Amino acid sequence: MIQFKALLKKELKEAFRDKRALMVAMMMAIMAPIMIFAMSKMMIKEMASTPLVYVKVTGSEFAPKLIKAFADDNIKLFSDVPAEEAELWDKRNIELTIPETFAQDMLDGKRIDIYLKADFSEKPMNAPLRRIKETIQNYAQAIGYKRLLVRGIDVNLLRPVNVIEQDTSSPSSNFIMISMMLGLYLLMAAFMSGLSVAIDSSAGERERNVLEMLLCQPVSTLKIVLAKLSCASTIAFIGVLLTISLTFASIGFVDLTKIGASFSLDLSAVVIIVVMLIPICFFASALQLFFSFQAKSFKEAQSSVTMVVLIPAMLPFIMTFIDDKPKWFDWVPVTGQSLIMEDIFKGLPVDWTNLALTTLVTIVLTAILVFTLAKKLTSEKVVQSLS
């Protein structure tokens, strides 16, 4: 135990001595809350406001009531665009063509084709085009209802079945996108924060011939690996704590009530998340140490470990595209923790069985990596990077 304490003290002293590497390690924890804050503000602005949209309308004089409906929804003619925004809306080039026969066709009760021309693949066009189409649909629906009423027909005949939505989700579920991002950033903080420390204490020490001197001492390789793992995991855990605390602080400056959402976690939920991520910090550091020792140089270790940590970091993203998730997702490291965090953010009760299973599997895999690495360090090929 004394040897382990001495090794851990040595690793921690070296990790905290390099201020630049430490700053890079904490960059993810600091940037994540800033990104969540910025995205929250943008999302609320897009959902709660109806900014002005400018459309190049051909034949606006043939449908004055439709143009008025557009104006009521902040959709203006291109001739009204301010000079400073003219270039932007000219580039977006949203064109609406109203036929000359609009008034006569309306009088005759014929169907009228209005052409909406734009680049529908551009993401910034989604909101303006959606609003234009909704305005036209609402206008057409209102005209249709009036025609039926004039003919003495009940408008309810058009809707023989009506769906009444009763949303059972909690208010925090409306903020699910940001919650999902927080869960992803917490997992990435666990993988990214200890990355530089893990590489430096493995491939870096080997290049500086420190590892060889360390292995010459009467200390078991298992203790050496555990000391390096504990040091890198501590840095990763600090990154997780920083991410969650700074995110809570930044979310406090976002007015979620504008979109009818809320984001609040009680102390017990925060404690569950933090405790659940401790094994992930150890697993991530063990994975990084394992692949760093397999690399032949410090540079190769940086490349290989960076690619390795991106795979588990992307798993939550992949899960969003799977409707029917396999059962084994509940207990596999990263996916299991991600699903549990998703339930917590939605306000659902924690599945303690899945939490215990995914924690157990994560600890077992970490232990396998540690023992395998300790055994590999007894080989001269690994120490001298000859393999």
UniProtKB/TrEMBL annotation:
Keywords: Membrane, Transmembrane, Transmembrane helix. GO terms for molecular function: ABC-type transporter activity. Residues 25-373 form the ABC-2 type transporter transmembrane domain. GO terms for cellular component: membrane. It is a multi-pass membrane protein. It is found in: Membrane. InterPro entries: ABC2_TM (IPR013525). The chain crosses the membrane at residues 21-44, 175-199, 229-249, 269-291, 303-322, 355-374. This is Sodium transport system permease protein. It comes from Thalassotalea piscium.
